[in-house]
Amino acid sequence: MNYKKLLISSIVVMAALSTQVYAKELQAQVQKNTANAAKTAKTTPVKTSTQAYPEISRLIEYNHCVEADAKIRQLLNLKPNDINLLALRTVSMAKQHELDPAQKELDKLLKQYPKNPTLHYAQGLVYLQRTTSSDVDYIKNTRGLINNSIKEFVTAVTLNKNYYEAYNAMGVATLKLGNRNDAMDLFNTSIKINPSFATAYDNIGVVEMMNNNLDSAENYFMKAMKYNTHNPTAWYHMAQVETRRGNYSKALTWVNHSIHVNPNSSPALTLQGELFLKQGNQAAAINSFKKAQLVKPENSRAYLNLAMIYENRADEEFAMEQLKSALAINPNYQEGKLRIANMALHTRKYDQALDYYSKLIGDQNYNDEAIIGLANTYYEMAKDRGANEGITTNKEVYLAYDYINKAIEQCPEDLELHLAKLKLARLVHQEPLSRDSLNYIIQAAGNNLMDNVIKGEAYLAMGREKDAVYTFENAINFSNSVDDDLYLAEILVHNKQFRTARLALQKALTKDPANVIAKNGIEYINLCETKSNEFFDIAQREYQQNNYASAIEYCNRAIDFYHNSPQIAKLKAMSYEKELNYRGAIKYYQQYLAMNPNAADKAQIDKKIEKFKNKAK
């Protein structure tokens, strides 16, 4: 079998053995033992070092450790120095994750009984269980621990060729190293020795499931249940099979059985949460994921699931915290960094956005998205400040501009990169370059949703409100699904194009009348419009009282909540006019006409704009 070469030659020799001669002897011994294991099992009763106590050994293997411990204590009162009982006690400790006490016992007993196979099996289990520890030192040395466990299991089967539990455990360790074929050989060897060993059947089922052979996997899981009727692990695995088949109710039944017997299984709790989520029970899903985190804080999947829920609910602060926890577990989770950066930008946490985007510069998969994110962050910062003060002299802005140019050299047809370049060019007062980018986007944009969105954003960045509104409205025509409608609405809401966003959400509801996201989106727009009207009422009173600066301030607040009100734009223009700020008056009179092209006073406003253009020179 292939696993012999892997386990003996590459692992045992490297990890533990001091001479090549001994390695060859050990390999030959294990090969002989393995080759004869099945044949011996047919003619001889199953024997391991625990043959004197098969009932206790079975209880431990099937995780009935409390009952096994009681029997061990009872027998040790009669035989305090029985090495078989003492060895079984260390196995039970290892199974229950009492790893430090188990190691202390093993250090003592292995010195006295170096050829006891059960002690080596227990030592291998301790190493293997350490790979699931919360201790960072063990987490960093996972591969070394797996290799050490395999060494101990090899020693155990060398000392006892019928030690089917050790063959099975060696298969688990081998599978953790990614070697499915050798793991399968080891599990089958275990079953040949003991055809009623439920754990090995379950592990074969896992390999079959990994190979997407779901019917075969189910067959092995059912065999595991046949030989161990109280089997939460096999129930959990059947839940995984039914999940892959899309039978979520059946899957939930299986996983609930598993959790009832073993409530401290973080993977089972995580799967339960995912199934609740598929059924639309978000509250129950959150509860399951939080329980999974409590049981095993290093379960990154639970954090990612919670982050997805919070992000979809627009609870972005909570989502970012979950993603940060996932990154603490896996610092190389690049997608998590991008998601944090995007949400930080959306919530105007600009420093955090810049930090996380910067971490992705140079990454082969996320470099371009990070560059676009940097450009958008600087652009939004400038918009929030109302001017480019403190931005145009920022060396990092120019560095981002260089990044964009390099990225465009690699992907010259990427419109998102050209949009990012346009925005940064505006920040550094490179108007000709901004116009060049806009012209490229206009000419290159195709008749599809994404290109029209980019073109609309480009018009907005250049201050061409009327063209932007027209382009965004045209983009709705290219939306072919509910997901398209929701995606477009999200972008429009971000750009405060609420009127067009409402149209996109209404279109989504015509296709899916029960869509919660679309309904919530319209409620959000309605709320923003209400708040905007409240500030607009105050702005009107301030204008009537000749408090023009205050009127402008409240117009700004009204615009923050609802951008598409022509009356707000007109009042702001009138206030600028009263303050003799002709540039401001021109900008907002033009915006007023862009939002209300058929205004009754259009001719009068056009005359004002022309008049103020001369005064603003």
Please characterize this protein's 3D structure.
The chain has 617 residues and is mostly helical. Among the domains are: 2-195, Tetratricopeptide repeat domain (Serine Threonine Protein Phosphatase 5, Tetratricopeptide repeat, Alpha Horseshoe), CATH 1.25.40; 543-615, Alpha Horseshoe (Serine Threonine Protein Phosphatase 5, Tetratricopeptide repeat), CATH 1.25.40. The chain has 34 helices and no strands. It has helices spanning 2-15, 20-43, 54-61, 65-78, 83-95, 99-112, 117-130, 136-140, 142-159, 164-176, 180-193, 198-210, 214-227, 232-245, 248-261, 266-278, 282-295, 300-312, 316-329, 334-346, 350-358, 367-385, 395-410, 415-427, 431-444, 449-461, 465-475, 482-494, 498-511, 516-544, 548-561, 566-578, 582-595, 602-615. Helix 15 runs antiparallel to helix 16 (266-278) and helix 16 (266-278) runs antiparallel to helix 17 (282-295). The longest helix is centred in the C-terminal third of the chain and has 29 residues, at 516-544. The N and C termini lie far apart (87 Å).
